[in-house]
Amino acid sequence: MAKKSEVEKKTLRITLVKSLISSPERQKATVRALGLNKVNQTVELADSKVVRGMIAKVIHLVNVEEQVQ
Q1: pTM score, two decimals?
Q2: What separation in angstroms does the CA of 15 have from each of 2, 3, 33, 34, 55?
Q3: Measured on CA atoms in the order 18, 52, 48, 28, is the torsion positive or negative?
Q4: How far is CA 14 from the centre of its chain?
Q5: Cα(65)–Cα(26) distance, integer angstroms
Q6: Taking 70 as the threshold, does the pLDDT of residue 58 lie above it?
Q7: What are the residue boundaries of the structural domains of the chain, listed by start?
Q8: Staple 43 to which of 33, 35, 63, 64, CB 3.0 to 4.6 Å?
Q9: Residues 10, 66, 5: CA angle, nearest 5 degrees
Q10: % of the chain beyond a pLDDT of 70
């Protein structure tokens, strides 16, 4: 089993690529909860099931890149 120091930490780089103007309020709230406010804004979040679930609900509005640190 790998030690904690050897475990790779994954982060997700999430970029808002489409406007939220015609999106339902629940999708707007999800994008805001991800920390995105403006088009082309990018945030880096730790990879978790919660974040993956949020991304799944708004995948048509965002671009996601995986990064290993």
Answers
A1: 0.85
A2: 32, 32, 13, 10, 11
A3: positive
A4: 4
A5: 23
A6: yes
A7: 9-68
A8: 35
A9: 20
A10: 90
